[in-house]
Amino acid sequence: MAATLLDGKAMAKAIQSEIAEEVADFIQNNATVPTLAAVLVGDDPASQVYVRNKRRSCERVGIESQMHRLPGDTSQDDLLQLIAKLNKDQTVHGILVQLPLPEQIDESQILQAINPLKDVDAFHPENVGRLVQGRPRFLPCTPHGVQQLLVRSQIETAGKHTVIVGRSDIVGKPLAAMLAARGPGGDATVTVCHSRTADLPAITRQADILVVAIGRANFVTAEMVKPGATVIDVGINRTDDGLAGDVDFNGVREVAGQVTPVPGGVGPLTVTMLLHNTLAAARLQAT
Q1: Which of 11, 28, 263, 269 has the most CB atoms less than 10 A away?
Q2: Known catalytic residues?
Q3: Which has the closest alpha carbon to 48: 27, 72, 18, 30?
Q4: Quick check: 181 pLDDT over 80?
Q5: pLDDT of residue 168
Q6: Residues ≥6 apart with Cβ < 8 Å to 234
Q7: Is 131 in contact with 179 (CB distance < 8 Å)?
Q8: What distance in Å separates the CA atoms of residue 143 and residue 269, rounded to the nearest whole number?
Q9: What is the dihedral of CA 116, 36, 232, 112, to 10 degrees?
Q10: pLDDT tens digits, residue range 111-135?
């Protein structure tokens, strides 16, 4: 029997309806519209699509969005100056710098320059530290989307063996901390795998919940999945046949209990959690 599809698109729509109501209440009570400033350096096609989707989502829930486009040869100093200006601007509540950045710019310096109270991606070292300590200000968008998918689909995480394939700062590391934390959507036993992991299939086959975020199309096959497991595919790769995840969807859906499609799985929830964080940032700055 084929796996149940975890529909991130439908779930994102439901959460955005909740956020829209909260945004309307916030505007009424504070006479301020939550505002997200997105910064795009260069003309990477994938980044342009992501930013456009984020902007449309902002409009749907009543959040104001600003777009700051800079040429690909922008210097690090010029980008830092823009961030300093946005940090000071009291009408801007959230700042998002679209990654990746051109090679002449030090990504870590840029992320560190964003005011932690406006860091809606939760990449600033202060916000990463708070997350690891179990007292997060904001949760990073993609891991939070994964967690919401599990919680709202009533997939139990407590005591379950969760295997994460990928150790990036954006997905793997923060998700491991969140799933191991106490509380709903947490209390899991977490294993993080990566390119140096020995006998990866033996470990992925132990997973009750398998999260794949390595950026390699169709990497995880049916033989690597425990029958009945929940498989969350975070990857999105452009191939000759169109978009593909990190999981061989057609093969894995015959083995897994639940699986996310690509597109339409985690992606819509990533954008939705950005909206959630922008509203949270506006609330923090209003107090």
Answers
A1: 269
A2: 54, 98, 121
A3: 72
A4: yes
A5: 96
A6: 142, 146, 166, 171, 211, 212, 213, 245, 246, 266
A7: no
A8: 9
A9: -30
A10: 999 999 999 999 999 999 999 999 9
Question: What is the mean pLDDT of the segment spanning 62-83?
Answer: 97
Amino acid in the structure at residue 30: N
Token pair belonging to 142: 């993609």
And the tokens for 262?
């690509």
CA distance 29 to 23: 10
Domain covering 141-268 in this structure, CATH number:
3.40.50.720
Query: What is the DSSP code (8-state) at residue 223?
Result: G
In this structure, what token pair is assigned to residue 191? 């294993």
Tally DSSP H helices, then E strands, for the chain.
Answer: 10, 11
**b/e map 186-201, b = 16+ CB within 10 Å:** bebebbbbeeeeeebe
- CA-nearest of 172, 107, 193, 146 to 8 is 146
Which of 189, 193, 205, 216 minimizes the C-alpha distance to 252? 205
One-letter amino acid identity for 129?
G
Q: Which CATH number fits domain 32-115: 3.40.50.20, 3.40.50.300, 3.30.110.70, 3.40.50.10860?
A: 3.40.50.10860
- Which pTM does this prediction carry? 0.96
Q: Which of 116, 113, 93, 95 is nearest to 105 (CA)?
A: 113
Structure tokens given for 206: 């132990």
